[in-house]
Design a protein that fits this description.
elongated; 13 helices; Heat Shock Protein 90; about 500 residues; single chain; five-stranded mixed sheet; alpha+beta
Length: about 500
């Protein structure tokens, strides 16, 4: 009777672990998570109890076909439970089901073998005590044996529950990219260790009982060394499942950093090309403007000599032409050629989508002895402006009469340079990614969602940091950096 009670409590706890594992990755179908969790716990406990009765009721419960069939049936029942109580039509669901079953079986076999041998040793101790006359009555011997069996059950079920819970908690904690859209190759990578562990448990079910003279006998009773080898294999398999999850997450992070570096390199290369092109164009404009000013001045003087009345229209035309050339001056002047080029380029790109955009950079000034590399500042401002322009565009799509603005400023405190970019937006943030940065609203999330990551990475190269906050419907980005030279590898340069 006590064994049945322990089994029921174990199954309920396993059901709790199953719902904890699934709800960390999947959305519950029942809106109230507590009721959903209770339904999963009870359904799992009932299904496991039915499977247990099926095995006990078999005439040959040691037959490996029964064990293998029970495992396959348990996987099917668990899959049905997950599909019934969670929105689980995702590839990650396959990993959740297989990993949970593998860890549950590994914990059970490991504890049954180790604790079972402990119980056999305890029984031998009672027999030794009885032989030495320490247990003088049958009642005392029976009480000692029953106490030992009860203690063995408690230790066994506690160990199974503890291994299962801690392992699942480790996976949930290490699996940071829970919203990642997993493809088949990634699923195969992360599923393989769990599938291997499940296969080992199935193999153990087949070979754990051998026949000697028509009598079933445990394999490790025949080969005592397996008492240590089998649990070691199980624990190594469990470790491979846990490390596989951690390695998978590291790979995702490495791939994101690689994508970030590629985008960053393209931005730098594109910025350098734009700088060279804009410098060439500006040089030509300045030369043409200088020549045309002299030409217009000569024509105006000649027009004055010809009489006021007949040349009034010509002078008005020439004055308008001069004002047109004045408009060729650059809009933004911060004292940094790279930043001026970038701001003018981004402004002209922005007004094509947001014609009434108010872009103010009067507060953006740089010290005469600027040691931070210009293209690093360009990377920061370029990513910040891309995000700000996109936010203003979305705002104007939703509210045509809304004020769309971008304000840029800077502040120097001793050897610190602080850049600030403010922009209006619709008041809706897309939420944070697992790495702490804001997610992108765009369909192509991977390249667009790493703008802030590039800003932070560049700032950290100068022992700086990045922060953002929201005031009403204004997004405020602040970047702080030390005004010092840095080599390409991020180390300080004294040159």
């Amino acid at each position: 009777m006590a064994d049945i009670i322990f089994c029921v409590f174990l199954y309920l706890f396993q059901g709790y672990c199953l719902q904890y594992f699934c709800v960390s990755f999947l959305e519950s179908r029942i809106r109230d998570r507590r009721w959903n969790a209770l339904a999963v716990m009870v359904s799992y406990a009932v299904s496991r109890r039915v499977l247990f009765q099926f095995q006990i009721g078999s005439e040959k419960n040691w037959d490996h076909r029964v064990g293998v069939g029970k495992m396959a049936l348990a996987l099917c029942v668990m899959s049905v439970l997950v599909l019934c109580f969670y929105r689980a039509l995702h590839l990650i669901t396959i990993f959740l089901v297989v990993a949970f079953q593998a860890i549950a079986d590994i914990s059970r076999y490991t504890t049954v073998i180790l604790v079972g041998e402990l119980g056999d040793g305890l029984l031998s101790l009672w027999n030794w005590c009885a032989g030495r006359g320490l247990l003088t009555s049958e009642k005392a011997f029976s009480s000692a044996v029953n106490t030992g069996i009860l203690g063995q059950w408690i230790l066994e079920y506690l160990a199974m529950a503890l291994i299962l819970y801690l392992s699942l908690k480790k996976i949930v904690g290490d699996f940071r990219e829970k919203d990642h859209n997993m493809d088949r190759t990634e699923l195969l990578f992360i599923l393989t260790p769990a599938a291997v562990g499940l296969t080992l448990c199935m193999l153990l079910r087949i070979v754990i009982i051998t026949m000697e003279g028509g009598i079933p006998k445990l394999l490790y009773d025949r080969y005592p060394i397996l008492i240590f080898v089998l649990p070691a294999i199980m624990l190594l398999s469990l470790l491979s499942i846990l490390q596989g999850v951690r390695l998978f997450q590291d790979m995702l992070r490495w791939n994101r950093e690689k994508s970030s570096r590629i985008v960053l390199e393209k931005q730098v290369a594109g910025m350098q090309e734009h700088m060279e092109e804009m410098e060439r164009i500006n040089a030509g404009i300045r030369s043409m403007k200088h020549d045309m000013k002299n030409t217009i001045l000569v024509i105006q003087r000649l027009a004055v000599r010809g009489g006021e009345g007949e040349n009034e229209e010509l002078r008005a035309y020439l004055s308008e032409l001069e004002r047109t050339f004045e408009k060729l001056d650059v809009r933004f002047r911060t004292g940094n050629t790279v930043v001026d080029t970038l701001l003018n380029m981004k402004y002209h790109e922005a007004v094509r989508e947001v014609p009434d955009l108010d872009m103010d950079a009067d507060g953006l000034m740089f010290p005469q002895e600027l040691k931070i590399r210009s293209y690093d500042i360009g990377v920061i401002l370029g990513n910040a402006l891309d995000n700000a322009i996109e936010a203003c565009r979305r705002l104007k799509e939703k509210e045509r009469d809304a004020d769309a603005f971008i304000r840029l400023g800077s502040l120097q405190k001793r050897d610190l340079l602080i850049l600030k970019v403010e922009n209006s937006f619709d008041g809706r943030l897309a939420g944070e990614r697992p790495d702490g940065f804001l997610a992108s609203d765009k369909t192509d999330k991977d390249p667009h969602g790493i703008g802030l990551a590039n800003i932070k990475s560049t700032a950290e190269g100068y022992q700086g940091t990045m922060d953002y906050r929201v005031e009403d419907r204004v997004f405020i980005l602040s970047v702080m950096m030390k005004n010092e030279r840095r080599d390409d590898d991020g180390s300080r340069s004294d040159k």
